Amino acid sequence: MQLFPCPFCGDRDEREFHFAAEAGKSRPDTTGAVSDAEWATYLYAQRNDKGPVREVWVHLTCAELFVLERDSVTMAVLRATPLRQDPA
Amino acid sequence: MTSTYSAFSILREGLRGGRGWRQAWRSPDPKPAYDVILIGAGGHGLATAYYLAKRHGLRNVAVLDKGWLGGGNTGRNTTVIRSNYFYPESVALYDLSVRLYEGLSKELNYNVMFSQRGMLVMAHSEHEMEMAARHTNAMRLNGADAELLEADGVRKRAPLLNFSPQARYPIHGAVWQGRAGTGRHDAVAWGYARAADRLGVDILQNCEVTDLIVEAGRVTGVETTRGRIRAGVVGAAAAGHSSVIAGMAGQRLPLHSYALQAFVSEPLKPVIDTVAFSPAYGTYFSQSDKGGLVIGGGLDRVPSYGQRGNLPMQEAVLSGLIEMAPMLGKVKLLRHWAGIVDVTPDSSPLIGPAGIEGLYINCGWGTGGFKAIPAGGYLFAHLLAEGRHHEISRPFDPDRFAAGRLIDEGAAWGIAH
Amino acid sequence: MTGRRIEAGGLIDRAARLNFSFDGRNYTGHPGDTLASALLANGVRILGRSFKYHRPRGPWGAWFDDPNAMMNVRLGRDELPNCPATTTALVNGMSARAVNAWPSAAHDIKGGLDLFHRWLGAGFYYKTFMWPNWHLFEPSIRKMAGLGALEMSGIEGHVTDRVDDVCDLLVVGGGAAGLSAARAAAEAGQGVLLVEDHPELGGGLYRRGTPVDGQPPVAWVAEQRHAIEAAGGRILTGTTAYGVYDHGLVALSEDRGFAKAPRLWRMRVRRAILAAGATDRPLTFANNDLPGIMAVEAGLEFLGRHGVLVGQKIALASNTSFGDLAAERLEAAGATVRRYDPTARPLQGIGRKGLEAVRHGRYRYDADVLLASAGWTPLVHLWRHAGGKLRWSDALSAFLPGDPPEGMAAVGAANGTFDLDHAVEEAGCVATGTPLPQPRTRYHIAPHWPEPGGEGRQWIDFQHDVTLKDVEQAARENYTSVEHLKRYTTLGMASDQGKTSNMAGLAAMAAIQGRPIPEVGTTTFRPPFVPVPMELYHGTNRGQQFHPLKRLALEPQHRAAGAALGEYGGWLRPAWYGENPMTQAIRDEALMARQTVGVLDASPLGKIEVMGPDAEAFVNFIYYNTIRTLKPGRIRYGLMLTEGGVVYDDGVIARVAADHFVISCSSSHVDGVTALLESWRQDGNDPDRIFVHDCTAHWATITVTGPEARRVMRALDLPVQDVPHMSFCDAIFAGRPLRIARVSFTGDTSYEMSVPTGSALALWQAVKEAAEGRGGGPIGVEALSVLRAEKGYIMVGKDTDGETMPHDLGFTGPREKKKAAFVGDRSLHTATANASDRRQLVGLAVEEGAPALPTGAHIVTGGERPASQGYVTSSYDSPILGRPIAMALIAGGHARLGEEVTIWHMDETRSATITAACAFDRQGARLDA
């Protein structure tokens, strides 16, 4: 059981969280032209980094999304930032 | 030297203290260049090398691994072999694999112990029975064997399961595939390694790829912990680390890596003669020839490259197991472990070009790569040798995502098996 | 007779007598005995048989480091398989049987297998059994393999009790080092938990028997215990730390007695000190597996803890300085001890079913027991679980804890500090963070490892019958990596998980290859440290608490009304009511609802509030359908898609005000839809301008549907004039708020009435009574399924699959016309989305008089090899139409209305005609009848 730091609720059991997506993706403006490749990249391509990662997680019990920086090998938690304060 | 395996050779070697057994494979030094370099000496990489040499006459081939051969997911899985898929593309792929497995021990002269003991996929309600009927019909139409069993039929095949109507998920029936079963996972890697080695393939263990050499927009070789090696073409069969390899050439794949756990109990006298899987309980299990119960379930919750599992999924899987067969609560767990699996958005594999010339991928098998080893190798070898897809691998090209042509088997049963 | 109980000493209670049996013979022992110690005290030497060759075996170790004495143990009605005799505390009335031996361990008919050993060496099965087929051999091999048989009944009350807890410092191991560390830390004010796997504290002190700080072990241990507890420390005995997981979680298994499930402690620790000790590793020599050959420390453990002298003429072969102490102890207890230096010349065990003599070089000496040790191996398993590194010590001939994992330290024998006083000192320093004294050691070892090419059969793995020759063969065949060696020979894969075999195995490989041991490396240390019952992971996560169901507020009323309850989308709901058989009951309810009125508990339907200045644009983005144009007070049907364009949910959206919507999604998707809304709200929108709140559980919903529905509403004095189809109004019922929505999932006039859960009962009773007064009554989910299928209304997940897009269901408008962006929009325009052979939703009509189509049947092409073109997703006998109806997803179905198609089900075919999905009241006249 890993402990993840919800920026609002503090350290909680990993079962209260859900991995949402890799951080830093933005949705193409679909009111304009979006190519198949652009759309597929947005939907499916992943960095899937080994080592430090930036991910969006949701704390299911308080429903807040936040950016979690952690290490995908050691499982060390590096930092948690509320999504609305995330500069990226 | 004794190089062919048989009852007779065992008899002879037994009499002379086994001193004549030949090496199963060599430990060669890397050559400066190969026609084909395969990254990852797991089942898929080794099988690819074997079929390249055997079917396509390409023998100047090397298989590289950062550790020992068969040490990744090939040696960590729960050994289930089956082709009980829904879509025709999937059945074509996985049934090719089952058929190759059926002749594999003799072909490789190595007993991979493919035990066609059958597999049950439980249905726990009338609604699930309807879905099971849809699935059974699909398999049969697509040329795989399947039967829809009522509860009594399930009881005959696995009497230890919990048939109580009070069970959390009462058993209404199951989809049965009789040709499914289990194999000896290490033996598959070793058998292919030995056969490929005999055909001249160099298996380079402890030879980690640290970078890809990209020249003029093309992958032309690899940098390794044992030096630079040139290649006509590079094929990556690196499972959970495929994103890392593709990343060396600046490519992003539609993959997430997760830890998938597996469990084995202390050895018991036979208690179950088939593979039993319940999507609702989130657990499946079978019994190895040695007697241990081999147990698996879903992915861990957290994307991970850490080759170890965590308690939440252990509790989920083993609770499901005991709900499924309550007497197993008193059986002791001997060990648990995890492998890193690469999961695609539609739970179907990626076989094809990696987005840069000279680099091809065979990955994305997610939770079920072991069962696909012979087909994965067969088809990947075809692609690498011919430069174009075999018709069975064509639908699994990564180009399906841009075309929206997903093969979403995950939606069907949605669990590792 | 070789072993015997001595007059005094040990931790056993000689005053009490326990009766037990082994392999059908009766024996007695004392409280404080294990099965193994009691059997040894009774002079029994053969406690088991090996896995492969069925060689007779006595215990090698005295605790978890014994792979040999495995038993099925019964107490009363309960039997457990594969109990190690060395760790199973003796209980009066136990009957034990050696596993994998028949009729007994002493006389096992399969013992003859040993004669064929030369053909059954490492990996022989990979080389044969291929012709004609593995299946021919496998069943008999399976029967031969396995250890104990499993009794196929559960044990009553075998339920793990789970505790979540935290501590500042966890000390693993209650020997001298662990006790000292725990005491020092507790006295320094840390919150300490000390765990010890034996029932008693003291660890290795009893086998040494020497005073600590001038006190006898028992007194010293008692003093430490008192001091730890007085300082606020906690102690758990009989408790094994069996796994270390991420973020400081250590799993502890607390023994609660035979056939009782252990208690699981999920202990979150800030810091851990590993004081788990070390074990003797076996000496590798010819016939080193004979009963009577055991670890030096096992001999002393049986003596010091259980008061059992394991032999009378004891040969002692040890390459460490600890041998001196051992010999002294045994002699003092009355044995004659003769010491042999295993490094001087080869040893050999002599005897058939047990040790009779020892050959050392050219000389033969009689002995009934040989105590052997090739040195100590620190127990570093938890260190490795936590990610700590190991380092090789030439001085100690052992792997020791190296670079530490975060928050963990090792002390005492686990850290290679083998001298007692040094260990105590080190433990105190580490616990309190005081600087360590210079490392020094009196312990001395003359390295001794397996010697390749040696004479005779020399066992490396006792349980699995792996010998030095097997390792040599594996090396010859190039299975030289330590993992290949393990897997090819099965070395280290026995139930002791290599605790006795791994070091010798990798040392043998190192010697064969002429490489240093650390270069060969170790295999992975995998949890659990010792085998634990799988129940440990189960606990309260059982029965109805395994994936708990959501329950209706009105469940008692449904039960009282005779409901058959079933699981639908995670809710326990009435499937149908009454005594009639299922088919009849469903039919009657469906017909009743069409003819008069049906009352349905629809409470699980989602009720998610979306509010705020940006709510309109937000909901418009979330839904496929255009919501922007929806007027307050009105309701619209909508589909929610994934970004991949696949239909995820369908439901209705009610607009309460310009900035306020209520989303009513399907009952099984409430959590998913809420999560999806939250995720889009916060990622891509200004979260301060949209508010999402799921209040599904706050409201109960009761639906009345049918031609009499309006009259039922009037009878309750509820407004019906003001609510045309697809609108809603607020009203008051029994003094509480009520929302009436005119939406229909049946095609008949329907009113969905939602009240705060607390008012559900009153509303239900009133509605039910009014309906029954008009020939109607409650209907279950099954009848509703029939009614909606008659209308061709989909159930997402049943009539759609993982590929269905809205245009496949006939909802083409927004895909073509909606200007604003919406979830999944771009995915509706890929080549695949535009294909003409997409599976589309249609109806199917059967031939006159034919029965209903099986749900799950496929629609196929004709010809030799039929191919699937889709499948029947819903199929029922429609009572109101008097004929079967069906819905199906069929390739290009929308363009094929009227076409006769072949239906394929389990190799049998019949025909049906493609129709529109809606089979009943196609004009929709009844909606507002």
Short description:
Chain A is mainly beta.
Description:
The complex is a heterotrimer of chains A (88), B (417) and C (929). Chain A is mainly β and 88 residues long. Chain A has a domain at 18-26 and 39-88: Folate-binding superfamily (Folate-binding fold), CATH 3.30.2270.10. Chain A has one helix at residues 36-44; strands at residues 3-6, 10-13, 17-22, 52-59, 64-71, 77-82. In chain A, the strands form two sheets. Chain A has a four-stranded antiparallel sheet with strand order 3-4-5-6, with no helix packed on it. A two-stranded antiparallel sheet of chain A has the order 1-2. The model of chain A has no long low-confidence stretch (mean pLDDT 94). With 417 residues, chain B is α/β, with parallel strands linked by helices. Chain B has two domains: 23-83 and 85-110 and 185-253 and 346-413, FAD/NAD(P)-binding domain (3-Layer(bba) Sandwich), CATH 3.50.50; 119-182 and 257-343, D-Amino Acid Oxidase, subunit A, domain 2 (D-Amino Acid Oxidase, Chain A, domain 2, 2-Layer Sandwich). Chain B is built from twelve helices and 18 strands. In chain B, strands 1, 2, 8, 9, 10, 11, 17 and 18 form an eight-stranded mixed sheet that branches. An eight-stranded mixed sheet of chain B has the order 5-6-4-13-14-15-12-16. In chain B, strands 3-7 form a two-stranded antiparallel sheet. In chain B, helix 2 (43-56) runs parallel beside helix 7. The model of chain B has no long low-confidence stretch (mean pLDDT 95). Chain C has 929 residues and is α+β, with helices and mostly antiparallel strands. Among the domains of chain C are: 158-280 and 376-444, FAD/NAD(P)-binding domain; 608-694, Aminomethyltransferase beta-barrel domains (Alpha-Beta Plaits); 827-928, Elongation Factor Tu (Ef-tu), domain 3, CATH 2.40.30. Chain C is elongated, with a radius of gyration of 38 Å. The chains are: A mainly beta (88), B alpha/beta (417), C alpha+beta (929). Chains in contact: A-B, A-C, B-C. At the B-C interface, helix 1, helix 5, helix 7, strand 12 and helix 9 of B face strand 7, helix 2, helix 10, helix 11 and strand 30 of C. Strand 16 (332-343) of chain B pairs antiparallel with strand 30 of chain C, so a sheet runs across the interface.
